[in-house]
Amino acid sequence: MTDRALRLLRQNPHLAELAAFPFDFDLARADHGHVEEVRLASGGPLEVIAGDDTGGTYFVCADGAVLYADSEGGAGVLGAGVDEALDIMTGLPGWRDCLGLSPEDGEEKILACVTETEEEMREYHGIDEERAELRAALGFPERSAVELVGMLHAALSRTEPDFVLLNAEEGCAYELIGPPPPAPWVAVLAAGRTDLALLRAGDRTAWEDVAGDPVRRRLALRAAQFDRADGDAELLRHLLRHETRSSMTDELRLAAVLLGLRGDTGDLPLLHEVRETDFDTACGLGGMPEPDAGADELRQWAQDLDDTMFGTDPADEPVSTWTDLARDQGMTELARVALIRDLDEIVMDQSRLRRPDAPRGLATAPLRALARDFEELGDLTQALRAQRLYAALQETAWDRVSARLDLTRLERAAGQLPQAVRTSATLREDLTAPGDDSLRHWQGVNLGRFIAEEHYRLAGALAEADLVEEAGALLTAADAILGELSENAAKGVRELAEETAARVREVS
Looking at the record's lineage, which domain of life comes first (predicted)? Predict the structure, then answer.
């Protein structure tokens, strides 16, 4: 991961010219930057070191990796360092035509592709003498096309999740220019599969360690979902008993289903005991056969739940299943990128939100869930992106106000105070002229209280930012809202109102 080659290019104009043509790595284009403002989804610095004649840009990341971004919204890692990236690019001057190749394609296919690409290049300019001179000067060894394609494929495969490039203004992700990454569940389930193997081996210490750890327990159950074995009954009972510590979870229901599918009526007492753990488990495991039910009834109950909620293909699981488990394991970037890709698909094609039973209606709950997931990850930029679209798609006045209330809060939390002021003003317009009767009781319910509280918090944030005039205006609006609330709703807001008023007077 060294940059010796980059230093040589910067010190030697002739070598820099060779790199620029015919290898399209032009140091002079670094001054122009990229065609748009970009940033890494994972954060961290990006240094522009070169460009090409199509508007593409070469960046160096914090760890030295070279990230290439084209002008059409595609990006990928070309090397762990500048030396490796230049080794690949000078060895494969037609590397862009090799993006779809992998070592598994075999020597014959790789050589055929590289040969065809380079023959086409030779029709317009030389590459052989230039390649030999530049590679010798940079100290690169002789490498076969097959080896270089392997290096390129390995580099590109590192792009997700740590080197995903975003449009800085819109927040959408660049497409991968290399091979598609493994599905998120592959990495997420790896630890669970390891633990499931330990449980199956009968190591009683592992049984207690896995069952006692909420994350390991959930992962082991998910692994068992996709690798069902006849001998798992006892370990499933063990995990199910321990999962009650987390109350009603999807994994608790999954464990009950996996047991129920066996049709062993001897498990019914345990299943009923689990169901009666608390109110949530009683609701979540509703419809369970009675203790004296037969095997067929037990199997049918489990099969119905399995068909509607689980199944045997991890690709059929909602992305949130894997992002939640990724986050719990500390795989923050894996979770973030999967969620960004999911949001991008919705932004580009809102028909994905259409309800099967009402094609003209939209089921916007996935956007709200995305906003919440991003907020839990601490990514307020993406949370705002999801919440803004969610708010824009709401149809009733109640839903618009509720969505804009959350949007105001997120904008305030992100320090986007002018945007929060505008959103709160739009919210108040909806209160004044709702257009339907869904808000007829807002003054007497929690929604009214929450609206007043957020206005006071925003006024306080404006005062802290020394935006005195804006703080005063928000305080006036907050007081007006408070004045409309019922006595019950207003009761919990008055202390915050007094504190905020004092703070605004202080800065005024």
Answer: Bacteria
Rounded to whole angstroms, the Cα distance separating 80 from 158 reads 9
Q: Which of 77-81, 112-116, 354-358 has the lowest mean pLDDT?
A: 354-358
Q: Reduced to 3 DSSP states, what percent helix, strand and coil does the chain have, rounded to the nearest 5?
A: 65, 5, 30
* Collapsed DSSP state (helix, strand, coil) of residue 265: helix
Amino acid at 79: G
Q: Partners of 282 in the beta sheet?
A: none
Q: Map tokens 């305080």 to a residue.
A: 475
Residue tagged 């914090």 (tokens): 62
Distances in Å between the alpha carbon of 54 and those of 47, 71, 72, 98, 104? 19, 7, 10, 17, 30
Give the three-class secondary structure for 370. helix
Spans of all domains in the chain: 4-176, 184-315, 440-508
- Pairing relation of β-strands 175-176 and 165-167? unpaired
pTM, two decimals, is 0.93
DSSP bridge pairs for 51: 26, 57
- The pLDDT of residue 255 is above 90: yes
**According to the model, what pLDDT value does residue 124 have?**
94
Whether 374 and 339 have beta carbons less than 8 Å apart is answered as: yes
Q: What is the pLDDT of residue 174?
A: 98
Quick check: 500 and 475 in contact, CB under 8 A?
yes
Amino acid letter for position 316:
D
**Parallel, antiparallel, or unpaired for β 74-79 and 175-176?**
parallel
Residue 245: what pLDDT? 96
Is 357 a residue whose pLDDT tops 90?
A: no
- Please, what sign has the CA dihedral across residues 283, 287, 292, 296? negative
Q: How far apart are CA 252 and CA 268, in angstroms?
A: 15
Residue 13: Cβ within 10 Å count: 10
Single-letter amino acid, residue 157: S
Four-CA torsion 149, 151, 154, 160, nearest 10 degrees: -100
Average pLDDT value over all residues in the chain: 96
CA distance linking residue 96 with residue 92, whole number of Å: 9
Q: Within 10 A of 168 (CB to CB), how many other CB atoms are there?
A: 12
State how far the Cα of 296 lies from the Cα of 308, in Å rounded to an integer.
Answer: 18
The pLDDT of 311-331, averaged and rounded, is: 96
Report CA dihedral (368, 369, 370, 376) to the nearest 10 degrees: 110
Which of 37, 34, 83 lies closest to 59 in space, CA to CA?
A: 34
Q: Please give, one letter per residue, the 3-state secondary structure of 127-169.
A: CHHHHHHHHHHHCCCCCCHHHHHHHHHHHHCCCCCCCCEEECC
